[in-house]
Amino acid sequence: MSNEKDQDKKEYNFGEIKEFNLQEIEEEVLNESIYLDVFAGSDVRFKENIAPLKDAMNGVLSLNTYTYDYKTEEFPENDFSAANQIGVMAQDVERVFPQAVKTDSKGMKHVNYSMLTPILLEAVKDLHEKLEDQQKIIEELKNK
């Protein structure tokens, strides 16, 4: 049984999996609120040259996070939000995870924030492994 909110939802199918920037989506769906679930092709059958991510923790630790405001008046064509933001600087990310940064035709850099998720997952696993090692040492010291 669907509720009233579900009945008001409109589904837009762009016909294929492809990369869209927000301006392209806005041109496709004018005057609508857009809520996106983003799925990336992640099936192992799509992939080759698979290798574990190494040293994620050091890369993550080298990144800084910031609060900032977009220069909305200087870049009106980007239709940036006027709200205060939280994020990273693309140049910083590019130094340690170049795959997560794209440079557009104007030379401006953009971060693929969804690509940071598996990096953070690996860093958490690294941290957990270190925590387990420390816990073993503590237990050994207690038993002496």
From TrEMBL:
InterPro entries: S74_ICA, WH-like_DNA-bd_sf. Residues 42-138 form the Peptidase S74 domain. This is Peptidase S74 domain-containing protein. It comes from Halobacteriovorax marinus. The lineage of its organism: Bacteria, Pseudomonadati, Bdellovibrionota, Bacteriovoracia, Bacteriovoracales.
